[in-house]
Design goal:
With about 400 residues, the protein is an alpha+beta fold. The protein is about 30% helix and about 30% strand. Helix 3 packs across helix 4, helix 3 packs across helix 5 and helix 7 packs antiparallel against helix 8.
């Protein structure tokens, strides 16, 4: 198949002054003296992909992930700091609300202005003017200046012009986020028609349902980098899981400390190894989750004591050097069994502090193990323990439970 869009190791770096200046005069003087300090960041970081003729590709990611910036690079509005982008074919971009529209002109006049920018000939626009107006549903407002339009009306006009023909490449940035439900459905139907006609569509949306319906493939960006590129049916659920992960809204402290003296502890599970991992560190939570090929997040599952107090013991994490799975020891006496085998087990860290005995207000955490392989599953509460045991006949309780805050 013919490649219409090809990006090779594309990066775009922005820089911003780090010092606050009291006035323009002070900023100019400091700039002349070389005293203005800048901090750079990569809005797009070493991104590579290719899109074939007839493909419909969705671009997903959180706010600030670099989606709109990447579309600007594809359309030539911005140039990459490094790397290259090749685009072959007529491009009809709809990147930002009102782009390519003159607010002082009427909607009708903007059909010809914006149409010319998109490469449509005047004769073609004249022949299709009535169809564009009819699709936009603007009625008599087509003769009013665009500056008097609401955001929904502006989007209606811009989309109606961009999608009037079947361009080789249609690039859309959140165009379905504005307007009423009926017109959004109309736009989706038009995009589907364009895709079926063989056009290439590159589409940014925060609606995963739109991505699944309109795109066969999805690219997930996070902090300017490609996290995942594959079928939309696979990428969308993984991004949905990530975007609702509890650690994204936690404080920026290293450990997730609570006012009651506890730490939030998240549980992750390995899809291939069948083991689990606990952590109370925000950065580690994020780093683990980025390895989406194998790890899934169960969320915050319990609260551990932040510091050692009478009646608590450290909950320590060990890594199997042979299997890559994790085990957890509640207290030094349990940890001794792992420390005595340094060739097999590596001590990693203390997750928090737990009670080895039951106490009011606390819940048990049961360690379950398969006798034929190292590593633990951790069940919070008796009900989850029973469910794990029923689903996994090969596992059995390991040692005594430890107790934590729910």
């Amino acid at each position: 198949m013919e490649t219409l869009i090809e990006a090779s190791h594309v990066s775009l770096r922005f820089s911003a002054p780090t010092d606050k200046k009291g006035s323009l005069k002070k900023w100019v003087l400091d700039a002349i003296r070389g005293h203005v300090r800048h901090k750079g960041f990569l809005a797009v970081d070493d991104v590579s992909f290719s899109i074939q003729r007839g493909e419909s590709v969705g671009l997903v990611g959180r706010n600030g992930a670099g989606k709109s910036t990447l579309l600007k690079l594809v359309t030539g509005i911005a140039n990459p700091t490094s790397g290259s982008i090749a685009v072959r074919g007529q491009v009809a971009p709809l990147l930002a609300l009102g782009n390519g529209l003159d607010p002082t002109l009427t909607g009708r006049e903007n059909i010809y202005l914006n149409g010319a920018i998109l490469g449509y000939e005047k004769a073609w626009l004249k022949a299709h003017e009535a169809d564009i107006i009819d699709f936009s549903e603007l009625g008599d407002f087509i003769n009013a200046p665009v500056r008097t339009y609401s955001s929904g009306m502006t989007m209606r006009l811009a989309f109606s012009i961009a999608a009037a023909a079947t361009p080789e490449i249609l690039i859309l940035d959140e165009v379905l986020a504005v307007g009423d439900a009926a017109f959004q459905a109309k736009c989706r139907a038009r995009i589907s028609t364009i895709v079926k006609a063989g056009a290439t569509v590159f589409f940014v949306s925060h609606s995963l349902e739109d991505i699944r319906q309109l795109c066969s493939r999805a690219i997930w960006l996070e902090k300017g980098r490609v996290v995942m590129d594959g079928p939309a049916a696979e990428v969308c659920p993984k991004f949905g899981e990530f975007s609702t992960a509890p650690f994204l809204s936690l404080s920026k402290k290293r450990h997730q400390e609570q006012d009651d003296g506890t730490l939030l502890v998240a549980r992750f599970r390995s899809r291939s190894l069948g083991s689990q991992l606990l952590t109370s560190e925000r950065e580690e939570m994020q780093n683990i989750f980025y390895n989406l090929s194998d790890w899934a997040c169960d969320g915050i599952v319990f609260r551990a004591f932040r510091t050692s107090i009478p009646g608590t013991v450290p909950l320590m994490r060990f890594l199997s050097l042979t299997d890559g799975v994790h085990a957890f020891a509640a207290g030094e006496s349990e940890a001794a069994a792992f420390r005595e085998r340094p060739a097999d087990w590596e001590y990693e860290k203390v997750i928090g502090y737990v009670r080895p005995e039951a106490a009011p207000g606390l819940v048990p955490v049961h360690r379950l193990a398969n006798p034929k392989r190292p590593g633990f599953l951790l069940a919070v509460g008796d009900e989850e323990r029973d469910a794990f045991l029923a689903a996994n006949p090969a596992i059995a309780p390991f040692g005594k439970p430890f107790y934590v805050h729910p």
